[in-house]
Amino acid sequence: MKITVFTPTYNRGYILPELYQSLQAQTFADFEWLVIDDGSNDRTHELFDTWLREQNRFSVRYYRVENGGKHRAINKGVDLAEGELFFIVDSDDRLTPDALESIMKWEEGLTDKSRFCGVAGNRGANEQHVLGTTFEGEYVDATSLERTRLGITGDKAEVFYTEILRNYKFDEIEGEKFITESTVWDRMAYDGLKLRWFNQTIYICDYLEDGLTHNMKRIFSENPQGTALYIKQQIKHYDYDLRGRLSNYNLYYDFVGGRTGLRKAARYLEIHPLTLFTATCLVRLRKLMLQRP
Q: What is the bridge-based pairing of β-strands 85-88 and 156-161?
């Protein structure tokens, strides 16, 4: 099987039919839809009871698990996936009719696949729209860490080789239910694995009020150890100088300080509390100086 379309879902029974219909409309049929229900208490399971009995050109596999967060669902999905490629499509989003066909076209065009972890298209509010910014031309080969330099900003539709993802699992921290996907995408990039970014919108998304994006600061604060891991990794991967490190330390404390306090925040960052205190003071001082007439 070529592609696993993977959907982690939590209480999205009201909108999942739109994704299901977009999968039924695909021009490419050699895929499965693998769904991890992360502890939903709505009508999600009733929908799948019905859909599993329907005749589709693709297989549907549905699993219910105890609520543990999207990253744990992805780890489980990667273990269960039967497709060569793994495409995370959130439950409140949908695909263009030729999305999977386009993915296969671009993946098959890779000549030295050992250098790549996958391919990536654009996301947008519709097929003519691009979320964030993109580059000129049809495609560019680059790691996720080179995105900003190349003008590739905003959420994109990344599709990864399943076997590679099995070597880059998300950290699962006891008591926490979120860690940003960038922690894994950037590790692959740091190891030199590229994506072929192609200039086509294949993924249609709307950021709902109950989604991760609209609640990101709260989610970061509720998961301080996972957030610290992300900040430390950013500092390492981008090789920040002293000013950059202090700025990131302050950003972290801005996220979690109200919940953890300074000493615990410093411990999660693996730095001395005085270093974190200095970082917050310097950023505040700089802001005050900028505000002076």
A: antiparallel
Distance CA 273, CA 267 (A): 8
Closest of 197, 200, 199 to residue 137, by C-alpha: 199
Confidence of residue 216 (pLDDT cuts 50, 70, 90): confident
What does the buried/exposed string (b/e) look like for 152-176 if buried means 16 or more CB atoms within 10 Å of the residue's CB?
Answer: beebbbbbbbbebbeebebeebeeb
Per-residue pLDDT reduced to its tens digit, 220-240: 999 999 999 999 999 999 999
What number of other Cβ atoms are within 10 A of residue 188's Cβ? 24
pLDDT tens profile 242-286? 999 999 999 999 999 999 999 999 999 999 999 999 999 998 887
Buried-exposed string 76-105: b where 16+ CB fall within 10 A, e elsewhere? bbbeebebebbbbbbbbbbbbbbbbebbbe
Partnered with residue 203 across adjacent β-strands are: 95, 123
CA dihedral 170, 174, 175, 177 (to 10 degrees): 10
